TrEMBL record:
<feature type="domain" description="NAD-dependent epimerase/dehydratase">
    <location>
        <begin position="39"/>
        <end position="238"/>
    </location>
</feature>
<dbReference type="InterPro" id="IPR036291">
    <property type="entry name" value="NAD(P)-bd_dom_sf"/>
</dbReference>
<protein>
    <recommendedName>
        <fullName>NAD-dependent epimerase/dehydratase domain-containing protein</fullName>
    </recommendedName>
</protein>
<dbReference type="InterPro" id="IPR001509">
    <property type="entry name" value="Epimerase_deHydtase"/>
</dbReference>
<dbReference type="Pfam" id="PF01370">
    <property type="entry name" value="Epimerase"/>
</dbReference>
């Protein structure tokens, strides 16, 4: 999540950025493997990013984090550039910034990254007034995609949301149109400003992909689960399924989201794409079709579903990008 408010802490004085400091920052960062990509990641200090970035580092990529708060793990070697993404000038500058102080030792300015991954956002409704949530999210996404496109970045991943399917933040209990929730055919018709901002982001991505002929993949990210939440939250998620209706009994493990991002980096030439970014497995104890017929009897099931397939289906991302779930919730919680 990002905020429009500038940080008030002073930046280091000119004399404090010494050769010693440069060497210290340089030695603390991860070295990119020959096949790794240079990635600018927005919102990397948030709930998802703090797990996705370490996954990307483990695959040999180099990552610069754009956020308004430092990366939460100071030992990870992730440099954070404090950037207001609603300011297009800051965004253009940030995309050509060194990844750490060691960059000054290279002897040349930083070029644009190989990949931009845009996760930064006001993370949900009711953190700020609705119009401010919409303004920040839409403007930040536009600024990032425009700057990356004009600087020649050929691969952009941008975060959309499960909320765009129209139930998560609906007023009252509203029905799903059909199951499974499919990227290509489902009429995504949300009521709320957050989801609307994400749909605008998808349209922005499609527009720039058409104009520049590059790859922009929009990830419809499910409810993000961190490793510790299996113990704290899944007893309720699994045993009180009514609490998961607004999330379509689906989720994405933050580490599996890292895999999805890496697969998106590897797979090129698809142009504009939208992918449900969820785990393969539903949060139900019963087989999914049996469960849905009992809990949502008036909602049609449009195709045969796998035994425990998540209703927010990731079939496309499995078939197109080769995603394989590594963190099924049953590994961590047994009802």
């Amino acid at each position: 999540m990002f905020s429009p408010f500038r940080l008030l802490r002073p930046f280091p004085s000119r004399t404090s950025i010494s050769a010693l400091a440069i060497r210290a920052y340089s030695s603390s960062t991860t070295t990119m493997a020959p096949t790794g990509k240079r990635i600018v990641f927005t919102g990397g200090s948030g709930k998802a990013g703090r797990h996705v970035i370490p996954y990307l580092l483990s695959k040999g990529h180099t990552v610069l984090n754009l956020d308004l708060v430092d990366f939460p793990d100071p030992t990870a070697g992730v440099f954070t550039l404090k950037t207001d993404l609603t300011d297009s000038g800051q965004v253009f500058n940030a995309l050509t910034t060194h990844y750490n102080f060691g960059g000054y030792e290279h002897g040349y300015p930083e070029k644009a990254p190989d990949v931009v991954i845009h996760f930064a956002a006001i993370a949900r409704n009711m953190l700020v007034p609705d119009n401010e949530c919409f303004r920040q999210n839409v403007l930040a996404t536009y600024n990032i995609i425009e700057a990356a496109s004009k600087l020649g970045v050929r691969k952009i991943l941008t975060a959309s949301s499960e909320t765009t399917y129209g139930v998560c933040f609906s007023e009252g209990k509203t029905p799903y149109h059909s199951f499974p929730l499919d990227e290509a055919t489902y009429d995504r018709d949300p009521m709320d400003s957050y989801a609307l901002s994400k749909l605008c982001g998808e349209r922005t991505a499609r527009t720039f992909a058409r104009r520049y002929g590059h790859d922009i993949y929009a990830l419809i990210i499910g409810n993000v689960i961190e490793p510790h939440e299996y113990a704290t939250d899944f007893p309720t998620h699994v045993n009180q399924p009514e609490t998961r209706r607004r999330n379509a009994w689906s989720y994405i493990d933050a580490r599996d989201l890292g895999q999805i991002c890496d697969l998106g980096i590897q797979k090129s030439g698809l142009g504009f794409q939208v992918f449900n970014a969820t785990n393969s497995t539903s949060t139900t104890k019963e087989p999914i079709e049996e469960f849905l017929k009992k809990w949502e009897p008036d909602t049609p099931i449009t195709r045969p579903m796998e035994e425990f397939e998540a209703p927010l289906s990731n079939r496309k991302i499995r078939e197109v990008l080769g995603f394989k779930e590594e963190h099924d919730w049953r590994k961590y919680y047994q009802p």
